[in-house]
Design a protein that fits this description.
By secondary structure, the protein is α/β, with parallel strands linked by helices. The chain is built from eleven helices and 14 strands.
Length: 327
C-alpha cells in the first residue's frame, strides 16, 4: 500500500469545496491506488457545516480515504501537507470593486501564506483557486519562502477547459479531437483565450474553423466572460466545473500531461514571452514527474502580443494594489 498523500483544502464547506473533496477522496485526482488524508480548513462560523460534510465523507466509505482532519486553525490544516488547495475566500458582492476584493482576500492569503511557511512540507504543491487567484498566489508565495517558489500556482484550467469545449462544439468534433488551447494571463476578463495554437484532429484550429470573425468576436469574449454568463444563468458562480478544473490541474501536475499536448496553469513568470517576472501568469505548460515546464518558442503575432500584454498589465496593477500585504 502506498503512503497516503496529505491534501489540505481551504474553504472546504463552501460550494466548490463541497463538490471537490468527494472527488479527491474517490481517487479521481491522484488515481485509484493512492490513499489520501484530507485536512479541511474553514472559518469558525462554518465549522458545524464542515462537520456535516465530514460525516458525509465517512458515509461514503471511500477505500482511499485514510484520514481526515477538520479545523479552523491554518497551522493545523496545513501541517505536513503535500498538496494545498486554497479555495477559501470571500466572493465578490454587489458594489465591491476589484481593488476591495484584492485587499479583503489578500489578507486571507497573507495569513495563510505565513501558516504554510511554518508547517507545510517544503515540497508542497499549492494551487490557489480563490479570487483574484493569480495575485492571491503571489501574496501567499511572498510569505512562504520555505516552499519552492515554482510550486505556487493559480487556476487557469477552468478557462482552458472552457476553450477546449467551445472549439470542439464549433468545429463539430468531440472534445477529444481538440488539443493545445491556451488560457494566457490573468483569471479575469482580461485573460487571452488562445485558439491559434490549438489543433483539431491534428489540423490548426484556426484553419479548421476558418472563421476569423467568429474567433475574434465570439470565441475570445465568450471565454473571457463565461463566468459571468454562468452566474447570470445559475444565479451563482461556477462550482461543478471549477471543482473539476481543480481535479484536472492537480492530476496533470502530479501525474503528467498527455503526450503531444499541454495545459494552462498560472505559474510564476520567468520572463518567458516577455511577461514581467514577479507575476503569476497563465502559460501553456507540460508536466512530468511532478514538475511543470513552460512551453517555449510559440509564435506570437502582434494581435496575441497586445492581449497577452494587457493581461500582464492588469496583474502588475493588482500587484501594486497589494504590495502592503506582501512579505
Ligand atoms: P463559497 O463562498 O461557497 O465558499 C468559500 C468558502 O471559503 C466558504 O465556506 C467560506 O467560509 C470559506 N472561507 C472564507 N474565508 C476563509 C478562510 N480565511 N479560511 C478558510 N476558509 C475560508 O465560494 P465558492 O463558490 O466555493 O468559490 C470559492 C472561490 O473560488 C471564490 O473566490 C471564487 O471567486 C473562486 N473561483 C475561482 C475560479 C478559478 O477558475 N480560479 C473559478 C470558480 C470560482 O469563481
Amino acid at each position: 500500500m502506498r503512503q497516503p498523500v496529505r491534501i489540505a483544502v481551504t474553504g472546504a464547506a463552501g460550494h466548490i469545496g463541497y463538490n471537490l473533496i468527494f472527488r479527491i477522496a474517490s481517487g479521481d485526482m491522484l488515481g485509484y491506488r493512492q490513499p489520501v488524508i484530507l485536512q479541511l480548513l474553514e472559518i469558525p462560523a462554518m465549522l458545524d457545516a464542515l462537520k456535516g460534510v465530514a460525516m458525509e465523507l465517512n458515509d461514503c466509505a471511500f477505500p482511499l480515504l485514510s484520514g481526515m482532519l477538520i479545523t479552523d486553525v491554518p497551522e493545523d490544516g496545513f501541517a505536513g501537507a503535500d498538496i494545498v488547495i486554497m479555495v477559501g475566500s470571500r466572493p465578490r458582492t454587489k458594489g465591491m470593486e476589484r481593488s476591495d476584493l484584492l485587499t479583503i482576500n489578500g489578507e486571507i492569503f497573507r495569513t495563510q501564506g505565513k501558516a504554510l511557511d511554518k508547517v507545510a512540507s517544503p515540497k508542497a504543491k499549492v494551487l490557489v483557486v480563490g479570487n483574484p487567484a493569480n495575485t492571491n498566489a503571489l501574496i501567499a508565495a511572498s510569505h512562504a519562502k520555505r516552499l519552492d517558489a515554482a510550486n505556487y500556482t493559480s487556476m487557469m484550467r477552468l478557462d482552458h477547459n472552457r476553450a477546449l469545449s467551445k472549439i470542439a462544439s464549433h468545429a463539430g468534433r468531440p472534445v477529444t479531437s481538440v488539443r493545445k488551447a491556451i488560457a494566457w494571463g490573468n483569471h479575469s476578463s482580461a485573460q487571452f483565450p488562445d485558439l491559434y495554437h490549438a489543433v483539431v484532429d491534428g489540423i490548426s484550429a484556426s484553419q479548421f474553423i476558418h472563421d476569423p470573425q467568429w474567433i475574434e468576436k465570439e470565441f475570445i469574449p465568450a471565454i473571457q466572460n463565461r463566468g459571468t454568463e454562468i452566474l447570470e444563468a445559475r444565479g451563482s458562480s461556477s462550482v461543478g466545473s471549477a471543482a473539476n478544473a481543480v481535479v484536472c490541474h492537480v492530476r496533470d501536475w502530479l501525474l503528467g500531461t498527455p503526450e503531444n499536448d499541454w495545459v494552462s496553469m498560472g505559474v510564476a513568470s520567468d520572463g518567458s514571452y516577455g511577461i514581467a517576472q514577479g507575476v503569476i501568469y497563465g502559460f501553456p505548460v507540460q508536466c512530468s514527474q511532478g514538475r511543470y515546464a513552460i512551453v517555449e518558442n510559440l509564435e506570437i503575432t502582434p494581435f496575441m502580443r497586445e492581449r497577452m500584454d494587457e493581461s500582464c498589465r492588469q496583474l502588475l496593477w493588482e500587484r501594486d494594489q497589494v504590495r502592503h500585504l506582501m512579505g
